[in-house]
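Q: Got a minute? One more chain.
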Amino acid sequence: MSSDDDFRQRVRSFLARHGPTEGWMRDEHGRPPPDDAPDEVRVARARRCLSLLFDAGLGAISWPQLYGGQGLSNRHQVIFNEEAAGYALPLDMFIIGVGMCAPTVLAHGTEEQRSRHLPPLLRGDEIWCQLFSEPGAGSDLAAVCCRAEQDTGGWVVNGQKVWTSGAHNAAFGMLLARSDPASSRHAGMTMLIVDMSLPGIEIRPLRQMSGVSRFNEVFFDDCLLGPDAALGEVGQGWRTAITTLMNERVSIGTSNPAGYGHPATVLAAEARRRGRIDDPAIADRISQLMIRERITALLGKRVTEALLAGVQPGPEGSLAKLSGTQVSQASASLALEILGSEAVAWDAADALAASWSTVQCSTPGLSIAGGTDEIMRNLLAERVLGLPREPKRPSNDASESVP
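A: Always. Here it is, folded:
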């Protein structure tokens, strides 16, 4: 048996042992358990999961041991992902930290920052958030206005961020701020590591139409950060942000092809249970969804293989992200058609029934999170197809580009 086979068997044994007892099992149709628990319960459940993984040598698999990882190959991580796909590991609140912030700290951080932040981040001891978007700076990220001014004591931050997922649970955040308003839009930014417990930070939850509050507005009022808070070079925050954005799209694009929707197999089982599987229109849409799921999975594998070959994330991640968004929305829409009136009215005690509607309310946001569909299409048109750049308003910044 090869070392890969040995590792795969170790992963299978771990999941078979802990999956049933920890509540990670999907039902007979492949649906995850309803996730309607309070935030403190979700955090405890996620940390428990990461703790078990690390104790078994399966946490942060491909990360260097120096920073809290297992020191194994990317191939081992792929094997783990393949085996874990059939389970509902409660790790979603760590996606931003492990999938987006940690690679940025590794790429741009000082040795002191890596040693301090990566081990607890990868173990799940500290949740991270990403402080990028503002009311006037979303797709046009270079328009950020949140100010970070250097003084003798460090950095003084003033401004607002919005749509910050998980800020209410985060110990640290990565803040993209304008450090030199006199410079061109891209050259005048710096990335900073923020202790979210500092005075001068106010976090206000935003209620989503699904009924939950998992992202927030964050206000900075003369918040003082230490002199060592800069992540990467001062004035080079745009380059640091690109590293985060590319890893964000890869994280989204290589996740479960069904995304926030329901896998086609689940919808087929539900249609059969309701006597609608013989409806030609329903059967055709389920078939089309299966095909698109397969295509999205193959796109994700293409990105993964590029990473295994040592290629940095590129526009392929944008393609996988766009495809995954479309599949998720098509899946959620089809689910509502299959359920009919039960998609909008159900017994309050039926958590599973409520989850169908929650998914439908959550999927529209995927067209914005991690870069809008329009931005993804522009990236693919320009960087993959070689089409002319979209006309832009006059600017004095010759380096201006879309992330």
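A: Residues 280-308 form the longest helix (29 residues).
Q: Perfect, thanks.
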